[in-house]
Each structure stands twice: as structure tokens, then as C-alpha cells.
Amino acid sequence: MSRIDFEPLGRRVACGDEATVFEAARDSGVPLASFCGGKGTCGKCKIRIISGEASPLSEREKGKLSSEEIEQGYRLACLTKAGADIKVEIPQESLVVSPQLQLAGKEKGVRIDPVVKAYEVAPSPPTLEGARSDEKALRDYLADEHGLIDLDIDISVQRQLPGILRESGWQSQIGVRGREIVMIANPGVSALGLAVDLGTTKIATYLADLATGRVLAARGMINSQIAYGEDVISRIYSAMENGEEPVRQAAIRDLDRMIDELCSEAGCSRENIVEAAVAGNTAMHHLFLGLPVKQLALAPYVPAVSGAIDVKARDLGISIAPGAYIYLLPNIAGFVGADHVAMLLATGIFATDKTVLGMDIGTNTEITLACGGELRSCSCASGPAFEGAHIKDGMRAAAGAIERIEIKDSSIKYKTINNEPPVGLCGSGVLDAIAELRKAEIIDERGRLREGGKEYILVPAEESGSVKDITLTEKDISEVLLAKAAIYAGMNILLSEAGIDWDAIDEVIIAGAFGNYMDLANALEIGLLPEIALERFSQVGNAAGMGARLCLISREQRALASETANRVKYYELANHPNYGRLFAQAIGFPAH
Ligand code: FES
Fold it and tell me: Taking the model in full, what pTM does it have?
């Protein structure tokens, strides 16, 4: 067993003899970047050995690191073992910090009608003449005063009941969920709810007052499961290889940390949280519940469970009110999950009588077309290019990431997140770079650099925070072309199945973090979005988080979520007869 000091974090962690530096970081929650989950293929987990001796440099590292990097002591954490105590530096581009998270979403008003209802209770205390049990006293009171009979009482409530009734002078409140008492508390304590958007990359959480629907605090963080694979497929494979539980626990720990932060901001206790609603894609949903995920990776890619689920929080190891339930929104298909259902709810697409296309662009881009009262959806394997992955100088949307680029009078202007020195490109920066280079005719229609060479320098080393050129390569351009071709083909298939063309589209709603930050005109320039009037597009932010919040505070929205998931007609693109042709047609940029 050796020790690793991670700088600049000042974290010291233990490392087993056979563990890599990456595994030691992952197991201790050190935020080290990775797109491949520690397989030695993405090259994103760079560290620099400051002192101490690590395992010798491997051939694979030599292939991923430049000679200057090797000279300066850079290594790949997932291919390096600490033979003895070592001190390493995590350079800024390898550090997953200050992520720019999309917490806000377009607000939609609904009638507040949460699944847990609070009732004041004042049962009479027992006397020698009338020595009823506390439970009986409560039941009698509920029947007489509220007409509630034959309720189940969660065991945690049974345990707390005698103490709270006496402590509160026989004036308490209970929370009833359906036919079950799930909470008992002193009077005046607000019953709170937690809404969670459980994303592959990010987790967004919202703490809300169930009586008013008001959001008291919101938090977001990078999903620590990233250490087990950047995208859904690699995470599923990691769960298949190493078991689902370590992957599941990573998200549970994140949630636990966020609940602490939310409660300290709102000045409340975990015990006040009596209900939670979670929206995630199908793989995240399954991993969260400990359901098997293997069948999601194998044709015909079906979920183990598609209906909405209610499960006791304590059964998942989540510590909120002991009797609280967690509700998970329903899934549509293996790759169109509950987060998409949440988005359809939040945007109103599920009920529109217009012709609307809604999409959430990510590693998988889920698209739904509402047309003539019918809902059709598909999922496009668009890859992680728009999240900055598989891009040579790509990175997540964190401090120092270039998020905007403009070419004016032959000079490149850029803007970074938090105005830090540039260290890489996040998704919107990649999109802008390609669109601007395309407008300047530096990239041709097929995605090649006209001036020759395999890469274009966007920021020279002297200006960059990583002291290396920040470039866009032809391979980066082709990653984006593949992503946009997949999305474009998916949209076209839904349109052709509905028998309409682009002119019929009244509105295109784009949800999610990348969709919110991307420059629409540039998305049109590269052909990611159809050539229709800009006014017909709307960017709505974190609609999945909004949908989870709606389901937290409204029983009607839960019913609509189930109805919507059942109504959607899902198209599997992998075996659609037109997919290959449409995909091939969409590779390349629109002509000028
Ligand atoms: Fe180490 Fe990808 S190369 S995590």
C-alpha cells in the first residue's frame, strides 16, 4: 500500500499495490478526467509526477503523450502504478472541476398536488382508563378528523411515533402517501421533496417545498460514474465487467453529497425530505436501481423495466426521511429514457396540437416528433463530440474551456468559461470553431482543411493555459460530421414516418446543456439543424430537471408521464431501412 498526494487539491489517498493512480483517484472521489473509464485509450487522464517513483513509462503511454510531455514527467494515470509514495499534479485540463451545469429550465406552472399530503394530528394521550396504543390513538384520530381509515404505517413511522407524540405534546403532523403513512414530524416542519435529473455526465438536484412547489436550493455536479465510462455504452460494459454495484454506489455517493449541500443551503434536515422524483436515461435509471443493464447493450436493446417505479429510499441506500419513497419516471425504450419523458412533459410537447420536434443533444440524441396528435421518437448514436469528448483538445464545459469562437477579419476571437486562460474546447466551442472555419472557407464541404495539414491552430501555445497549441483536427471535424449526420438522419426518419417535410414544422425545441449554449446560427451553418427560420427554434435548458420537478409536486404530471411513455411510438434506427442512406447523405457540410 502506498500513498498518493494529488496536487493542487492537497488530497492524500491510499493506493493498493496493484491499483493504478486512476483507480486510486476514482475510488477516493478525486475528480480526474476520463473519457474511456481508465482503459488507456482517451488520453484525458494526464497527470504529472512531481516526486517519487512510479511504474515505468509504458509503450501505450508513449503513443498518447508528446515527447515534451514525457520530458516534463507527464503520465496517463490509468496506465501508471505508484510503486511507492508519490506526489502528482493534476493539470487543469485533467481536472473535473467547476462544471458549467445547466440547472435552470423553462418554468411551467402546474397545480401543486404532491403525492405526499401533510395532516396535522392531535390524538389524545392515553390514560389509565383508556390505555390505547399510540398507533391506535393515531388511527382513531385520523378516522374521526380526516376520514382516513386503514392506512398502512411505515415501520420507521411506528418507531418514531411514541417519541414524537410525547415530545410534541400530542400535536404532530404526518405525511400520507396514497394509503401509507410515510412521515411523522413535529408541527411546523415543512415536508420537502427532491427532484433529480440523473444524467450520464451530470447530476442536477433540486430541493423543493412540497406544499408550495417552491425550489429552495439547487445543485449540480459531474456524475462520478464517469470514472466507469464516459458514455452510456462504456458504462454499461464496465458494469457488466465489474458488477453493477460499484457503479451504482458512485451515483448514490454523489446524491448523498448533494443532499447535504442542499440541506445546508436550505437550513433543513435530510429527514424533512419525504419524497423524491428521479429522471434519468434508461441506463442511468437501471444502474440507480441496481437492475441488470446487459440487455440494454444487446439487440434489440430493451429495458428491464419501462413503467414508473416507486421504491423506498432506504432500499437504495439513500438517507432521507426513513419512510420516504423515490419515484422514477417511466422509460420509453432502451435508449429513450425517463429523462426524455420528463422533457416531453416540461416542454408540453406531449400535449401539443402543433407539429413540434423536440430533442436533447448528447452522446445519444433523443428526438420526438409531435405531429397530428401522435408522438414518434428515436435515439441517435451521436457520440460525445458535442460534450467535448473524442475531440483532440476537447474538454467538458469547465473553467478554461473555450465556449465561443468567432473569426473576424481573419483573426480568431474566443471566450472561455470563467474567463480563465484557454485549455481546451467544450461542445459549443467545437461547434463554433467548425462553423466559423467553414464560413471562412478554411474547411471544405467534406470537412477537410483547404490549406493542407491535419490540424488548424485556434490558440497558439503562448496564449493557452496549457502551454500547448489548442487545435482543431480533421479527425475532430469528422467526429462532428458523424454526430450531426446521425442526428439529421434520425430527424428525417421521424419526418418521413409522419409523412411531412421540414416546412410543416412549427417549432423545434432543443433541451439540455449543449443545446442551450450552442449558437443556433452555427448549428444551421454546419447542417446540424434544418434550414428553417431561426424564430422557430427555442432553447429550453434543463427540461429533464424541470420534468422531474413537475412530477415531484404533481400527481397529475406523474399520470401524464406514464400516459406519454405509453403513447410514444419508438423507432429503432439501427434496423430502419432508410437510416444508412440518410446518414450517408448527411455527411458533409451544406454548400455555400
Ligand atoms: Fe486514462 Fe482514458 S486514457 S482514462
Answer: 0.84
